[in-house]
Amino acid sequence: MKTSFSKTLLVIGTTTLISGPALADYPERPIEMIIAYSAGGGTDIAARTLVPYLEEHLGTDITVVNRPGAGGEVGFTELAKAKPDGYTIGFINTPNVITIPIERETRYEIDDFAPIASVVDDPAGFNVHPESQFKTLDDLIEHAKANPNDISYGTTGVGSDDHLAALALERQADIKMTHVPFPGSADVRQALMGQHIDLGIFNMGEAASDAKAGRVRTLAQGAEKRWEKAPDVPTLKEQGYDLVIGSNRGIAAPAGVPEDRINKLSQAVAKAMQEEDFQAAADKQALPLYYQNPQDYQKTLNTAQERFQALWEESPWSEQ
C-alpha cells in the first residue's frame, strides 16, 4: 500500500520555517486557481472540493478559473506566464504538462513552474471484462506474444497516461497490441463492458466503482505500492515490470514565486487535505490522495520528465 497520507504529513516538519513581514502579509487578497480542463471534469471536481478547506487555512478567497484547450496546454501556458507573486496558482497534470512540450513546440516548459504540492496520484489500471479469457496479466502477455496485435486496448487518446502506460508495457514485455483511442475514460469503460475491446486502460480511481460492482476485473495497477482501496490488485512492479505510471494532479505556481510563499501554500494544502470532511469527500470520488511537499514533488516531476523524454526518443507516441 502506498505510504499513508498521515505519514506523508510528517514531511511538513522538515520544510523551511517561515517568518518575516513579507510572509505575515501574504495573502492580502484573493488567489486565482487555474484549471486547464473543463468544469465538471476530474481535475475541476478535485480542485473545487479542496478549495474551501484551502481557503480556511490561507485566510483568503480562491477563485477557480477554467482554461481548457489543447489537452491542457492553454491553461498550463496561462499559469506559467502569470505574475510570480503567489496570487496565481493552478493544477498541473502529468503526463500532459510534461508530454505536450516533448511532442510539440509550446510557450512553456516544465521548468516554468514552481511545484507547491502533489494532491492526487491516480495509478493506471489495466482492466478486462469479467468474462475475459485473461485471468492475470501473465495470461494477457502470453497471448500477446503468441498473437501480435490481436489484443485491442482502449485509452483516452494518443499521448494520454493510459496510452503511454500501454506503450511502456509493450516495450518491456516485448509485445504488440492494437490501440483504440476514445474521447474519454467513460467511453473506454463502456467499450470494455460491451466487450468491444479486450483491454481497457484507465485510472484506478475511475475503475473503482466498476471493479467493486464486478463490471470489470483489474489485472494490474501502475502504482509504486498497492492502492489501499485496491489491495488485491498487484502492481506492475510486483509482476516483473519496472513501470510506475498514472495521472498525478498537483498544484503549482509560476516559477519565481518567493520560497516562503510556496512553503505557506504547501503547508496550507497539507492541512486542508488532513481535514476529515475533505478526506470523506475525496473518498466518495475515489481520489487516491497523495501529498508531497515542494521538494519531493519536484523530484517526482523530474523523474517523469526523464522517463517520458526517453520514451519519446525511443518511440514517439504520436506515431502509434
Describe this structure in words.
The chain is an alpha/beta fold. It has two domains: 5-122 and 245-318, D-Maltodextrin-Binding Protein, domain 2 (3-Layer(aba) Sandwich), CATH 3.40.190.150; 123-244, Periplasmic binding protein-like II (D-Maltodextrin-Binding Protein, domain 2, 3-Layer(aba) Sandwich). Strand 1, helix 3 (42-58) and strand 2 (62-66) form a beta-alpha-beta unit. The two termini are 33 Å apart. The chain is built from twelve helices and ten strands. Strands 1, 2, 3, 4, 5, 6, 7, 8, 9 and 10 form a ten-stranded mixed β-sheet that branches. Helix 3 (42-58) packs across helix 10 (259-274) and helix 5 packs parallel to helix 12 (294-314). The model is unreliable at 6-22 (pLDDT under 50). Helices cover 40% and strands 20% of the residues. Keywords: Signal. Residues 1-24 form the signal peptide. This is Tripartite tricarboxylate transporter substrate binding protein.
Secondary-structure topology with pairs:
Blueprint: H1 5-8, H2 21-24, E1 31-35, H3 42-58, E2 62-66, H4 73-80, E3 88-94, H5 96-103, E4 113-128, H6 137-146, E5 152-155, H7 161-173, E6 178-181, H8 185-193, E7 199-203, H9 204-212, E8 217-221, E9 246-254, H10 259-274, H11 276-284, E10 289-292, H12 294-314
Parallel strand pairs: 1-2, 1-3, 5-6, 5-7
Antiparallel strand pairs: 3-9, 4-7, 4-8, 4-9, 4-10
Helix pairs in contact: 3-10, 5-12
